[in-house]
Amino acid sequence: MGEALAASIRSGEGYETDRRIVLPDGSERVLHALSRLVTDPAGRVVKVVGTLMDVTERRRIEGEREAILTHMREGLIVADPAGNFLAMNPAARHLFGYAGASGAGAEACHDLDEFWQTFEMWYLDGRPMPTGERPLARALRGEALSSYEARVQRRDTGATWTGSFGISPVSDRNGRPILGLITVRDVTAQKDMEAALRDAHADLERRVEERTADLIDLSFRDRIFAVPKVPVPDAMA
């Protein structure tokens, strides 16, 4: 930290950094150092005011949270009530076309307005989905939903897929929403398979109906041509 302090004084700015230390018993701790410079009217540094805080447990929790976000198979988006994106994990960035970014907090869209400008959404029946009915908007209103399905298209690339969204608002003690959590997974293959099964079932029903109609027609014709001959009496012969 001595080097950081010296560099801070030379630059005339404070500094903020983490340092890992090893205690005599061999255990490691993480210290967070924060300093501010006090200068005289001429701008010379006359005092350094700072704090040193043990953030070992906080950094451990943050590391575990980062690992969970990174290894989740479902996409996760976290937004505040104003619509600012706080986090988008790797699975979500991959789905929405930001695969080049790295780290659970890497920036993709910055906020909800930018997201609406980048993506279009439809209901599964093809109707456009109003912005107020889209998953993120509903989460920020405090709604909770599961398996909320929609077609998603990125405007600039045309990439289209079907997503199943889970919506979980987070509220404070007074019940006011403070975060919107959105989970999403790609169900395009599943929906394509369901559509193929429906088409196959409809085709099978059509064929059965056609075959049934053919059999009824054949049976009717057989009855017409199978009329027995009526014997002629001898007296009339």
Number of separate domains: 2
Gross geometry: elongated
- Tell me the major beta sheet: 6 strands, antiparallel
Going by CATH, the homologous superfamily of the largest domain would be: PAS domain
Residue stretches low in confidence (pLDDT < 50, at least 5 long) are: 101-107
Quick check: average pLDDT?
79
What is the N-to-C succession of helices and strands?
Answer: HEEEHEEHHEHEEEH
In terms of DSSP E residues, the strand content is 25-35%
Strand order of the largest sheet: 5-4-9-8-7-6
The name of the CATH architecture of the largest domain is 2-Layer Sandwich
- Tally of DSSP β-strands: 9
Query: What do we call the CATH topology of the largest domain?
Result: Beta-Lactamase
Structural class by SSE content: alpha+beta
Number of helices: 6
Secondary structure: elements and pairs:
Blueprint: H1 2-11, E1 15-22, E2 28-39, E3 45-54, H2 56-71, E4 75-79, E5 85-88, H3 90-95, H4 112-118, E6 119-122, H5 135-140, E7 145-154, E8 160-171, E9 177-186, H6 188-225
Antiparallel strand pairs: 1-2, 2-3, 4-5, 4-9, 6-7, 7-8, 8-9
Key descriptive features of the protein:
237 residues, alpha+beta, Beta-Lactamase, 2 domains, six-stranded antiparallel sheet, three-stranded antiparallel sheet, elongated
Structural write-up:
The protein is an alpha+beta fold and 237 residues long. The protein folds into two domains: 1-18 and 29-52, no CATH class; 65-191, Beta-Lactamase, CATH 3.30.450. It is 35% helix and 32% strand. It has six helices and nine strands. It has a six-stranded antiparallel beta sheet with strand order 5-4-9-8-7-6. Strands 1-2-3 form a three-stranded antiparallel beta sheet, with helices on both faces. A hairpin with a 5-residue loop joins β1 (15-22) and β2 (28-39).
